[in-house]
Amino acid sequence: MIRNASRQFVVEKPLVVGALVTITMTGVLLITSLSRTISSSSFTYMYTNNGGSNTATQTQFLAIIHYATSKDIPELTHPEIRSAFDVLINLAPCNFLVFGLGHDSFMWAALNPRGTTLFLEEDPTLVHKILVRAPALRIHTVTYPTQLYEAEHLMTSYKSEKTCVPPNVHLKGNSMCKLALSDMPDDVYNREWDVILIDGPRGYHAEAPGRMGAIFSAAVMARTRKNGGVTHVFLHDADRKVEKMYADEFLCKKFMVKATGRLRHFAIPPAANVSKVGRGSRYC
After folding, report:
1. What pTM was computed for the model?
2. What are residue 95's DSSP bridge partners?
3. Alpha carbon separation from 226 to 97, 167, 178, 191, 270 (Å, rounded)
4. CB within 8 A of 37, min separation 6: which ones?
5. By the 8 A CB rule, do 230 and 256 touch?
6. Fewer C-beta neighbours within 10 Å, C or N terminus of the chain?
7. Residue 234, beta-bridge partner list
8. H helices of the chain, where?
């Protein structure tokens, strides 16, 4: 709801002081809540170690200022944010790939100090708006080759294209597989991503790109991982029909760690570490 801009409000000094105290206390409570499970040694290293650039510290300060002065509310709930936070705090600094850009982008970058956090966004206007506020954020504007109304057809037809299925599946340059995000910046392909958050692109009307390609490509990135360990994939809006269908097909119920609200957390091992049942042309 937008209030009438012409209304005038007289704010007394005691109210200003009260508002500042409220903001400060809210920030303290949020930090306390999010940091209960952090060991003192990991917290000290992540937030006070001065090795390398001070960009991480600047990003954290920008995040504090942004959320202390903004009326915008992130779409994820506190329990959903906490689910991803618990993983990031154990892995940071790590490689963190985020599909989508929004009011919570400052927060995600701040929660991965000295790590690489990269955002992929389809809307160039939104990219410009965010970069004006936080030029240090790493953001690429990308184009998706799909539309939401194609979701069911792509699900039934992808197996007939050999570059969409193991062992021939790959992403970069794979224009034959419409689900593969084949024309991303090299910045995306040149890293192995420890954590992937899928909260974009748009998936709420028929002509929107949908998240089919993002979910499929996250699964391929996880399967082709060469370094040890799993890839943590978080999918938001997992209660929607298309997201649920593609998560079941490519991210796999057996790899799901937890469901929190509309967020699903998957821990996907490299294909080489999956049992024989999950090999061959199958993802799950």
Report:
1. 0.80
2. 116
3. 17, 15, 24, 10, 7
4. 86, 89
5. no
6. N
7. 197, 265
8. 13-34, 40-48, 55-69, 78-91, 105-110, 124-133, 151-157, 186-189, 212-223, 241-246
Residue 107 dihedral angles phi and psi, to the nearest 5°: -65, -45
Q: DSSP 3-state assignment of 152? A: helix
Calpha distance 197→200 (Å, rounded): 9
Please name the residue that has the structure tokens 């469901």. Answer: 259
Cα–Cα distances in angstroms (integers) from residue 55 to residues 50, 109, 136, in the given order: 10, 11, 7
3-class state of residue 144 by DSSP: coil
Distance CA 165, CA 183 (A): 18
pLDDT tens, residue by residue, 45-83: 444 444 445 666 777 877 877 777 877 777 899 999 999
Helices 13-34 and 55-69: crossing angle in degrees, nearest 10, is 130
Find residue 140's DSSP bridge partners.
120
Closest CA to 233 of 201, 261, 207, 198: 198
How many residues would you count in the chain? 284
